[in-house]
Specification:
Layout (H helix, E strand, L loop, with lengths): L26 H5 L4 E7 L7 E6 L6 E5 L5 E4 L7 E4 L12 E3 L4 E6 L3 E6 L5 E6 L8 E6 L5 E5 L4 E5 L1 H9 L3 E3 L1 E5 L14 E6 L5 E6 L4 E6 L9 E2 L1 E3 L6 E7 L2 E6 L4 E7 L5 E9 L6 E7 L2 E6 L17 E6 L2
Parallel strand pairs: 9-13, 19-23
Antiparallel strand pairs: 1-26, 2-3, 3-4, 4-5, 6-7, 7-8, 8-9, 10-11, 11-12, 12-14, 15-16, 16-17, 17-18, 20-21, 21-22, 22-23, 24-25, 25-26
């Protein structure tokens, strides 16, 4: 497979390699019981091609975004089928990539072509929108929210991480609901050399204590640590990975010192033990199965891992074909 795998907006076919990696893992990985895949719930659209997922910790509801039409679906805890929460095309939204629900119950939805919109989950109303500055290529991909309520967003085309603080959100709401995204840091000098058209930064996760961010370069399979302490003197650094890499790394989920990663075109979910300071991580479990349906991201809720089976390679943005009914999967044992 080409090392420069990327998600393009066109429907150009991308060769997929789905070779099982269990034999390449450690003895501990091989000895662990095989994870189990089941359907968590169905999505109400036969062309959904889902991308992102978020959980509302207050209610247990999960939200899923469609990459191809910008719809957002909501599934109540225990529901067998999601409902349409935000219809396609609403508020000019072309895609719904990264999703996150903050502690106040606001739903953040990125549009790869524009920026991020913030919604009131009680009324479904858009309360603020932040747009990418300038006219250069952009691909606003994923986001994470730190304990202080600040949102950080990756741009896969620019290798930039944007920031929206609670003060910026409040100011935007008070002044018409529109503002520009503010770049927080530029990683273009630290990511590996790559084709100018290749995507780099993808998934992002926040340390539960708010000390740092982790973001993955899906092209090189590398993980980066971004310090968040005010006036931090430690630099953005590459995380030392033991036992594997994060090639095709997409969505990240960090709980305490455990990191789960969706590695999309190789149909893999990997689990990593992260050191207390976030400078190193060791892979301690890996699961590869074509039934994962090109997983783009995942979320942990109710002691379960919910995985978005995008099927992008089945008639979607990454190849021709016919998809199966779209679902969110539950994977136990990873």
């Amino acid at each position: 497979m080409s090392h420069a795998t990327r998600r393009r907006l066109s429907a150009a076919a991308i060769a997929l390699t789905c070779t099982a990696v269990a034999a390449c893992g450690s003895t501990d990985e091989a000895a662990a019981p095989a994870p189990r895949i089941s359907t968590a719930y169905a999505l109400p659209n036969d062309r959904a091609y889902p991308e992102g997922i978020a959980v509302d910790a207050r209610t247990g509801d999960t939200y899923v975004g469609s990459y191809t039409n910008g719809s957002v679906y909501r599934a109540a805890r225990g529901a067998a089928r999601a409902e349409i929460f935000l219809p396609e095309g609403a508020d000019g939204r072309q895609t719904a990539n990264g999703l996150e629900v903050d502690r106040a119950g606001r739903l953040w939805v990125t549009d790869s072509t524009a920026g991020v919109t913030v919604y009131d989950t009680a009324t479904r109303a858009a309360i603020a929108r932040f747009d990418v500055p300038g006219t250069a290529a952009r691909f606003v991909n994923d986001l994470a929210i730190t304990p202080d309520g600040t949102a950080y967003l990756t741009d896969s085309a620019r290798s930039v991480v944007y920031r929206v603080t609670t003060d910026q959100l409040a100011d935007a709401v008070a002044h018409g609901g529109r503002a520009e995204l503010t770049p927080h840091c530029d990683l273009s000098a630290v990511v590996a050399q790559h084709d100018p058209n290749a995507f780099t930064l993808n998934g992002i996760a926040a340390d539960p204590a708010g000390r740092y961010l982790l973001t993955v370069d899906m092209n090189a399979g590398e993980l980066f640590r971004i310090p968040l302490a005010p006036n931090a003197t430690d630099p953005i650094r590459k995380v030392t990975l033991h036992g594997g890499d994060l090639t095709h790394g997409d969505g990240l989920e960090l709980h305490d010192n455990t990191l789960w990663v969706a590695q999309n075109t190789i149909n893999t979910i990997s689990r990593w033990a992260v050191t207390e300071d976030g400078t190193a991580a060791t892979r301690n479990s890996v699961f590869t199965d074509e039934s994962l349906g090109l997983p783009t991201t995942l979320v942990r809720t109710n002691n379960q891992t919910l995985v978005v089976a995008s099927q992008f390679d089945k008639g979607g943005p990454m190849g021709p074909g016919t998809p199966k009914p779209f679902t969110v999967l539950a994977v136990d044992g990873i």
